[in-house]
């Protein structure tokens, strides 16, 4: 299998599992990725997802060396469709996604990291857009959307135009990652984040993720506050019902 999925109590840890190819994306991996994240949309037992890579890399992007073989990532409409829909499925699934970048995150691998909610990098990790250096547009799979909102217009465009690698400390300075830790502490850090998130009410993570995404799109803060109030009211009503049930 191109993915390794470890199913814990409320937390699934998903690992890219092609360490011999720096976890580069081939056709089987693209199929498994889309199926996995689409399946999570209606899964109420999974509340947090951790995404990382086996071996020395997070994900090196498309496996260009697989060209001409059955495992080659199909380019053109079919390949773009599947990876694009995977990124969309990652945003649509209700669970917060924590990406633990344990090495290179390049091209499509960077796009997958940026599609998560929280990114933590190990010291020595590198972020590389890669697209423009292989004759493609520098912006693909939603990378430009998140980077311009995170880094600002000038810094994001310099990053994508030049495809200059960015190390973990630089990514922290730009706000792309929330923390940089020692490589041997990365998984423990991610597990601790997941454990803290599990202290929330069952639906709280789902509603918070949805509201945070909506906040990035709403031009009027008043509309956002209305959405937040409606969401919060549902939790208040539920808590009142639970207290009444406990005292009856």
UniProtKB/TrEMBL annotation:
Pfam families: ECH_1. It comes from the Bacteria. GO terms for molecular function: isomerase activity. CDD domains: crotonase-like. InterPro entries: ClpP/crotonase-like_dom_sf, Enoyl-CoA_hyd/isom_CS, Enoyl-CoA_hydra/iso. Keywords: Isomerase. The keyword Electron transport does not apply. Belongs to the enoyl-CoA hydratase/isomerase family. This is Enoyl-CoA hydratase/isomerase family protein. The lineage of its organism: Bacteria, Pseudomonadati, Pseudomonadota, Alphaproteobacteria, Hyphomonadales.
